[in-house]
Amino acid sequence: MIRRKNILLVAILFLVVFVVTTNYLLYWLPRQSDVTITIEENIYLELKKLPIYYKINEAEIDDVGTLLKKINIVNITHAYNGIEKLWKLADTWPNKTQIVDIHSPQLGDILSLLSQAKIVKADLDHRGTQLKLLLTLEGGQQVIFKPKWYEIERVLEGPVYVGKDRYNSEIIGFYLSLILKKPLCPLSVIRQVSLRQDILPVATRRLIETSFTKNNRTCIYGKCFFCSINDPVCDDEHSILEGAVILNIKASLINHRSPWQRTYKKDKNAIWQEYSDSYCDIVKSKISKKRLYDLIDVSVFDFLIQNGDRHHYETFEETVLWLDNGKGLGNPYKHHLDILAPLYQCCMMRKTMYNNLLHLRGGRLVEQLRKIPNINKLITSEHLKAVDERLLIIFATIEYCKKSKKGKI
Ligand SMILES: *[C@@H]1O[C@H](CO)[C@@H](O)[C@H](O)[C@H]1NC(C)=O
Ligand SMILES: *[C@@H]1O[C@H](CO)[C@@H](O)[C@H](O)[C@H]1NC(C)=O
Ligand SMILES: *[C@@H]1O[C@H](CO)[C@@H](O)[C@H](O)[C@H]1NC(C)=O
């Protein structure tokens, strides 16, 4: 009798252990439905056996490179005549296909003015969640000033949207858009200002109210979601603050929510992350084909610099603009593949974009980037190397798409 009870007990114990371990295993083993993981793995498999075709550097006529070399940012030492005319010229550029005329002989002059024209008014810019200034330059042109928070060598760990805006990401983004033959980023230049000498004397009251002096340095902290008096930007010991000056586009833009918006919560996936395989069908039912192609173009651009925070986007005459590119260049050792979700979920790409990318294979993309004025102040060689690796990952994604049933590329 006692023995039988023991056997029963042992049997029950076995059963419990069995149920617990199987559940544990089922929970932790990769699930079949976890499509995102499978797609990423597939792309990395393609990367390993990427055809040599994607790595050749053909000597071709290098039109963009020639244009980049011609962009001359010069010192404006004299009073510049016709400054208003130049601003007006830039205002005429935006149309359905571009917001910058890369062929304009005045491009260099306008960039020079952006980096040096006298600041006649300074205000807070309330758009977005980070500290930005809205400056008015001589001749009436409004520009956005994004201050430098980090040295370019600084590596930011964490989620793709971690940290503050990187001013250099805006500037590299602008030139990258030219290199990709999609001039859809606003003009951006590096600029040194002095809060003490250039900004405060022409600042609005509400900007002055967020300024203070500490150790004889002038600081401002602004008014925005992430702004705090404990987190100011300040002039350095030479009374200089560096940052990016970005041309404020005069056209009226329409703001849209991105279909690939993140939840910004660690434990909560967005629908596009949850249903990776079928999500594109949902998007296709809601937006036009042109819009979708536009968003896929942007995802390629964003992936190259790892600008992974595009929760919203703006359109001008139905074309998606590439605005707000400050979250790139955070970590050269990390490639957040899900920035490419529009590409690998839809497996579509414009032929022109595909050809433009092919022209940049075999190291040409980095060759072009090296022609950017002041490039060494803007990007490290680690980041340049990373951009080159990411181009190969984009080609691997295209190979994945060709082989998957979705394949339309
Ligand atoms: C412009 O002036 C600055 C400082 O005066 C100097 O460092 C820089 O080399 C000059 N740039 C050009 C293109 O002359
Ligand atoms: C936009 O402007 C450029 C240069 O001015 C021109 O070449 C191009 O054809 C224009 N595109 C459209 C769609 O109007
Ligand atoms: C504070 O800085 C200004 C300009 O940078 C300088 O002229 C002044 O001498 C400094 N004052 C002190 C007390 O260091």
TrEMBL record:
Q: Which residues bind ATP?
A: Q130, K146, E314, D324
Where does the chain cross the membrane?
7-29
Q: Which cofactor does it need?
A: Mn(2+)
Main subcellular localisation: Golgi
In the UniProt record, does the keyword Membrane occur? Answer: yes
Localization, per the record, is: Golgi apparatus
Q: Which residues form the FAM20 C-terminal domain?
A: 214-406
Mind listing the UniProt keywords for this protein, alphabetically? ATP-binding, Disulfide bond, Glycoprotein, Golgi apparatus, Manganese, Membrane, Metal-binding, Nucleotide-binding, Transmembrane, Transmembrane helix
Top-level taxon: Eukaryota
**Where on this chain does Mn(2+) bind?**
D165, D324
GO terms (molecular function) for this protein are: ATP binding; metal ion binding; phosphotransferase activity, alcohol group as acceptor
Name any GO cellular component annotation. Answer: Golgi apparatus
**Active site at which residues?**
D309
Family of the protein in this entry:
Belongs to the FAM20 family.
This one is known as FAM20 C-terminal domain-containing protein
